[in-house]
Design a protein that fits this description.
This protein is of the alpha/beta class. Helices cover 21% and strands 18% of the residues. The chain is globular and about 55 Å long.
Amino acid sequence: MTTSGPRTAAPAPAGRKTLPLTVKPRDLEVGLDFPREWVEFLDPADDHHLIRADLTWLLSRWSCVYGTGCHGIIADRAVEGCCSHGAFFTDEDDKRRVRAAVKRLTPQTWQHYRKGFKNWTEMDELHDAEPALRTATQEDGPCIFQNDPDFPGGGGCALHGQALRDGVHPLEYKPDVCWQLPIRRDQKNVKRPDGTRVLQTSLGEFDRRAWGEGGHDLDWWCTSSPEARVGRTPVYVSYAAELIALIGQPAYDELARLCAARARKGLVAPHPAG
């Protein structure tokens, strides 16, 4: 069983063509600047919570292609997908949740098994800010939780695989940054012209820029690639669980209604990657 990425990888579409040797996967990616459609609405459960959502992204047919077509973010290391670096923790709740999940792993399910929080975490710099805690990495390799494809306990993310074995969604076990990708959520408090204040949540595509300056150095990134546009359903449907976790059920229900309505009428600015 191979498990990694936001969910179990979708099957490769029939007739996928091999790229000519002169064409690199990155060459197929679309640019970062193109028209997008956005919608704004108040959270039905909180009239002080304004949500902005990128319909161009949420109505696209992006899908995780780990194991079926993912080229990886580092050249010649496709098997690592987007797990070549450790995952930074967002807060104490994130740490506690992952720590509890790790306790469910064994040497039979985690190839690089380590006991103790300090043994599978390490400090590192985050976008030139103060050092922050993240999951450790293997020596000259990917995240410590990444199992090899031929590992008997299952290839890919050990935490993802354990979640599937336990019958829960992987977002219950994986670090926040891992299960949220490639959804980007930005939040800020906004003072409006009439003096009222709202919490503004923006939901969009985690593209190369979202990684910071280093994002432009990634060997390949899936959200810009037509090769990752193989989803049977749009992102707002395939990522329903993640979106609910990010904005709550009432807000998601309204978002889904608006997305469906826009899809029926047709986007003015569809995603150029598909």
